[in-house]
Amino acid sequence: MTATLDVPYAVLKAARERWDAAADELEGAWRRLAGVSVTGLSATVAAAVTGFAEPWVDELKAASQLAAGYAEELFLFNRMSVLVDEAEAARLRSLLPWVEHDAPIREVGGSGVGLP
Q1: Which of 27, 28, 49, 58 has its CA 20 to 30 A from that of 64?
Q2: What is the mean pLDDT of residues 84-96?
């Protein structure tokens, strides 16, 4: 059985663009943090800076990759009119702006269609 997520094209496009922008901002943040120099700092301060920066670089990198993945999912869903089951439609709906979180998910019989 398949389902369609009843969301206007413009909403999907805007959501994808927001996730893509978030991925870019997060990537810039982890790259800047990874490039922090400890040259000229005492060993104690350098260790503290490194101890702070390394885990945050990893977290920001992971968040950037996740946001980029969400943008790609919305792009593929939009571009290819992917048929999804109800659970996948609900998951994709959760990536949309808050005002679209109640977008209808309709069951499609037979061969169905992707986007309305």
Answers
A1: 49
A2: 79
* Phi, psi torsion values for 5, nearest 5 degrees: -95, 115
DSSP secondary structure code for residue 84 in this structure: B
Task: Specify if 87 maps to a domain.
Answer: yes
Domain residues for 35?
2-108
3-state secondary structure of 88: helix
Q: Which amino acid is at 113?
A: V
pLDDT at 82: 52
The answer to whether residue 115 sits within a structural domain is no
- The domain total for the chain is 1
Tell me the per-residue pLDDT of 1-37, one tens digit each, with 9 for 90 and over: 566 777 777 888 899 999 999 999 999 999 999 999 9
- Work out the end-to-end distance of the chain between its first and last CA atoms, rounded to an integer number of angstroms: 17
Looking at residue 4, the DSSP 8-state letter turns out to be: E
Q: How far apart are CA 54 and CA 52, in angstroms?
A: 6
| Alpha carbon of residue 103 to chain centroid | 19
Q: Which residue has the tokens 């109800």?
A: 86
